[in-house]
Design brief:
246 residues, alpha/beta, Rossmann fold, seven-stranded mixed sheet, 21% strand
């Protein structure tokens, strides 16, 4: 059960690490996760995922890793657009189970391989996937730079990486409105509907602490990705990163 706290435990803080906190939190909110994603983003999360997935040519990238796969929305989009095999890696078994049910309902289980795994240490062979995607999950990994390194390791030569993540809006007026909603309204509404206080107070905090787009782009380049491009949506509140492994 997720503890009622606005703070995330530090690594090795009384034996309760951030990884365990994230795993417990997402397992707790899994039953209402999709509903709240759509409600709290006013349905925009569907558009953001569709825009990000269009950066991948699935005729050339058949085997895809979906890191922080959650309930499988990105994985389903990938299969719909032509992916032949999805390795769905997530730290929460409860989230993966909900994704499995979605694939089973569509009779697409042959395309789906769930892996309960930590993004900092993926149980995959070197150069074993053609492309990798990660939607709204890289900031939840304690060491995002290490996770990007792992993604580079498992991608084949010239493999494509697409990361979709929240960022801080650039325009001053929109940033003020966004912060009001994101930091004050969304946590209260999410907590009330889900019944889990900490999860939706953690969300804005995690975005504030994550890298700005230029800094994260530099991390991708440092870890071996070339031609890294960034695409902003909603006045910079959401950013897509795309790079090719050298």
């Amino acid at each position: 059960m997720v503890t009622d706290t606005k703070t995330v435990p530090a690594e090795n803080d009384n034996g309760y690490s951030k990884k365990r906190f994230i795993q417990a939190m997402f397992s707790a909110v899994a039953p209402r996760y999709d509903f709240l994603n759509h409600l709290l983003s006013f349905g925009a999360d569907i558009y953001w995922r569709r825009q990000a997935i269009r950066l991948i040519n699935f005729d050339l990238n058949r085997k895809v890793l979906d890191l922080a796969s959650g309930t499988g929305d990105m994985a389903l989009l990938a299969v719909k657009r032509g992916a032949q095999k999805i390795i769905a890696a997530d730290i929460s078994p409860a989230m993966l189970e909900r994704a499995r049910r979605k694939f089973e309902k569509k009779e697409w289980l042959d395309f789906y391989r769930p892996v309960c795994a930590d993004g900092e240490c993926l149980p995959l062979a070197d150069q074993s996937v053609d492309a990798a995607i990660c939607a709204f999950g890289i900031r939840n990994i304690p060491d995002p730079e290490k996770a990007v390194g792992e993604l580079a390791r498992v991608l084949n030569g010239s493999g494509l990486l697409v990361i979709l993540e929240f960022s801080r809006p650039r325009l001053f007026l929109f940033r003020q409105v966004f912060q009001l909603y994101f930091k004050w309204i969304l946590p209260r509404l999410g907590s009330w509907i889900s019944g889990h206080y900490s999860a939706y107070y953690y969300l804005p905090k995690s975005v504030d602490e994550f890298f700005q787009p230029e800094a994260f782009k530099e991390i991708m380049e440092k870890k071996g990705f070339t031609g890294v491009r960034t695409f902003s949506m909603m006045f910079g509140a959401v950013t897509t990163y795309c790079g090719i492994k050298l």
